[in-house]
Amino acid sequence: MLLDNKKVAIIGGGPGGLTLARLLQEKGVDVKVYERDENREVRQQGSTLDLHDDTGLKAINKAGLIDEFKKYYRPGADTMKITDRDMNIVYDDHKEKPEEDFGNEHFRPEIDRGPLRDLLIASLKEENVIWGSKFTEMKPCGEGWEILFENGTTAYADFVIASDGANSRVRKYITEIQPIFSGVTAIEINVYNAEKNAPKLWKLVNGGKIFALEQGKTVLFSAKGDGTLTVLLGLKTEQNWLINSGIDFKNKKSVLEWFKKDFAEWSRDWQELFKGDEISIIPRTMYHFPLNQSWKPLPNLTMIGDAAHRMPPYAGEGANQALADALELYEVLTSNLFQKMEDAIGFFEKKMCARTSEITEITLQQTEAMHDENNLQLLLNFFNEVV
Ligand SMILES: Cc1cc2nc3c(=O)[nH]c(=O)nc-3n(C[C@H](O)[C@H](O)[C@H](O)COP(=O)(O)OP(=O)(O)OC[C@H]3O[C@@H](n4cnc5c(N)ncnc54)[C@H](O)[C@@H]3O)c2cc1C
Fold first, then answer.
1. Confidence class of residue 49 from pLDDT cuts 50, 70 and 90?
2. In a mutational test of the pocket of ligand 1, which residue from 154, 284, 306 has the highest number of ligand atoms less than 8 Å from its CB?
């Protein structure tokens, strides 16, 4: 096997990196994940993730973790309502959704990020995850790399895999290709203990998801198992809107003032989002990589997940693609089909870029449609055609 007697370093313990580590560990590979979080208790931001049969679930299955997944996924969390800006429900699949289960290609079970991360970490040997290791730089060293971390520690690896997410620091050692602004900026809001802090919205979401949209704006809600309501406000902006808007995103009142003005025509009930103090606000300018990106494969370095193909979240594909990358890279590296690392890496990267180029294109179309002036009608047309 290409990785015999090699030290492998995975930078970043998100869904992609941890899944890859699990797959490689089970093949006896000497693999370590270097994660910047101080420990496994760090709270996971972000909405729940729905895993797809041919990508995310396939990788979890191959990693031997489907039974663990079944313990922690959230039945019913995939149900969805669509509302207009006045909170009128115009579509509700809570009643119409057919019974689906594992093995059905349309079944997309939801799991919260925290439990997914926990189950992946629990599947790794303790010594294979090095916490508190924020990558800063790396230098060529023999056939491999000397990796430097912010806390002053270093590590040697023959082969490095970047899975450090959308703002990857490792990516630049592979390519200088820069991300492109998608035209949309989003503001992620997590309301903790939402039953108390946003009771009306918590009741409306009813353990599932709400897509509220009109006039080019989106307000997407999902309920998490720990009682958090995760909300993504989306709108078309110029690229530097976060800086130029004058909003202080660290100050709830400043964001609420903006919301009242920009969403003035929306029901005041949405403002309940800002009522409590148990809240976090994370602004996110949405970028993607070019659809035709490619680079020269290296024998000792590659990347997976958002580091390789960040994209807006409006098609719910990012984590699924990261898991598909993990599975495909594992298969290529352990298949005995290739004699040389650069051939294996080149094969993997070409396939990953082709797959994620298609997905990025679909995602951009959906991002555009969701933020079109006529977005509510477009989404209703979409669901009525699918059903
Ligand atoms: C609001 C929102 C909603 C989304 N909804 C969905 C959805 O419904 N379905 C879906 O499939 N996808 C969704 N996505 C996308 C999904 O979250 C990502 O595509 C996915 O998490 C990518 O996985 P990853 O492992 O590549 O990177 P990440 O999940 O970003 O993980 C990267 C890891 O690297 C660590 N790290 C970062 N920098 C360093 C460093 N310098 N040194 C060491 N460690 C580092 C981070 O702490 C993190 O643990 C959403 C994204 C957002 C923002």
1. very high
2. 306
Instruction: Give me ligand 1 centre to Cα 273, in Å.
Output: 24
Half-sphere exposure of 267 (CA within 13 A, CB side): 16
What is the CATH number assigned to the segment(s) 7-41+118-178+291-365?
3.50.50.60
Structure tokens at 184: 């949309």
Contact (CB, 8 A) for 145 and 139: yes
The predicted pLDDT at position 387 comes to 52
Q: Work out the angle at residue 159's Cα, subtended by the Cα atoms of residues 154 and 165, and round it to the nearest 5 degrees.
A: 75
The domain spans of the chain are 7-41+118-178+291-365, 180-288
* Ligand 1 atom at shortest distance from the alpha carbon of 222: 8
Q: Is the distance from the beta carbon of residue 40 to the nearest atom of ligand 1 less than 6 Å?
A: no
Mutation pick for ligand 1 pocket among 19, 35, 321 (CB with most ligand atoms within 8 Å):
35
Which fold would CATH assign to domain 180-288? D-Amino Acid Oxidase; Chain A, domain 2 (3.30.9)
Tell me the CA–centroid distance for residue 165 and ligand 1, in Å.
Answer: 5
pLDDT computed for residue 336 by the predictor: 87
What does the pLDDT average to over 314-331? 97
Amino acid at 269: D
Please state the pTM of the whole predicted model: 0.96
Q: Which residue owns the Cα nearest ligand 1 atom 50?
A: 313
* Model confidence pLDDT, tens digit, residues 299-316: 999 999 999 999 999 999
Residues making up the chain, counted from first to last: 387
